[in-house]
Amino acid sequence: MTAKILIIEDDPSITELIRYNLEQEGYSAHIEMDGEEGLLSATAELPDLILLDWMLPNLSGIEICRRLRRDKNTQNIPIIMLTARSEETDKIRGLDTGADDYVSKPFSPKELIARVKAILRRIRPALSEQTLEYAGIIMDLSYRKIMRDGEPIHLGPTEFNILKFFMENPRRVFSREQLLDMVWGNDIYVESRTVDVHIRRLRKALNVNGKQNIIRTVRSAGYSLDEDT
Asked: Using CA atoms, how far apart are residues 52 and 8, in angstroms rounded to an integer?
C-alpha cells in the first residue's frame, strides 16, 4: 500500500520539490501551506508521515506537533521537522515537542527521502505475530501495542523501536553510537545527542504512576534495559 505523506510547508518551491521527489519514490503526497489547515488535514486524513515546517502562517509547526502528540488518534504519526533554525537548542526543542527527526534548510532531497524511508521502515509492523516480554512489559510487535503491568503504554515510532531493541537485548549496555546504528540505521546521519532525547521520552512513558525506572544510564558507556537498577 502506498504511504501517505502530508507536507505542511508554506514555501511553494520547497513543497513542489518535496512532492516531486516523494512521488518519484512512489509515495502519495498532499500539501498544506497553512498551519491551521495542516493540523486539520493531519487529524482528518491520518497520514503515514508528516513533513512539518517550523514557521507557518496562523499556527507554528511546534504548536502543531504539540497538539498532534496530545491527540490519541495522531500521537504515533511520525513527524519530521523542516526548518531553517539550525541551532542545537532549536533541534532539541523540536525533538522534545515530539518530532521524530529534524532536517535543516537548505537540505538535500536525497537526504530527506532517505530519512522518510528510514522512519517508514521502522514503523511497519512485523508480518507474523510476535511478542516480547521483560520486567512486566509486554510488546506485541504485530499490533505495535505495549503494556506494562497490565496498563497500556503509548510510544512514538522511534521510542517504540528503541524499546524493542532493548527488549531483544535485556541487561546489555549499548553506547549511543551502537543505538544509532541499530535503531536509526547507518544510511542517515543523526547526532548522538538525539539518543538522549528519545531515551528521556521513553523513560517518561514507561515510568507513569511512579513505576520503577528500568532504563539504566551507565556512565561513559551508554544505556541498558535492566530491572535490577
From this structure: 5
* pLDDT digit string, tens, across residues 143-188: 788 999 989 999 998 999 999 999 888 888 999 988 988 888 766 6
Contacts of 113 (CB under 8 A, 6+ apart): 21, 22, 25
| Rounded Cα gap, residues 14 and 53, in angstroms | 10
pTM confidence score? 0.58
Question: What is the pLDDT at residue 184?
Answer: 83
Spell out the domains of the chain, with CATH numbers in brackets: 4-123 (3.40.50.2300), 131-225 (1.10.10.10)
- CA dist 18 and 80 (Å) reads 13
Residues 6, 51: Cα–Cα separation, whole Å: 6
Tell me the per-residue pLDDT of 87-134, one tens digit each, with 9 for 90 and over. 666 677 778 888 888 888 888 898 899 888 888 877 654 333 478 889
**CA-wise closest residue to 97 among 46, 50, 139:** 50
